[in-house]
Amino acid sequence: MGSRYRRRSNFRDDWTAARATAGVSGDVHFHDLRHTGNTLASSAGASTRELMTRMGHSTSRAALIYQHMTSDRDQHIAGKLGEMIRQARQARPEEPSGT
Question: Which is it for the CA torsion 29, 34, 35, 40, positive or negative?
Answer without folding.
Answer: positive
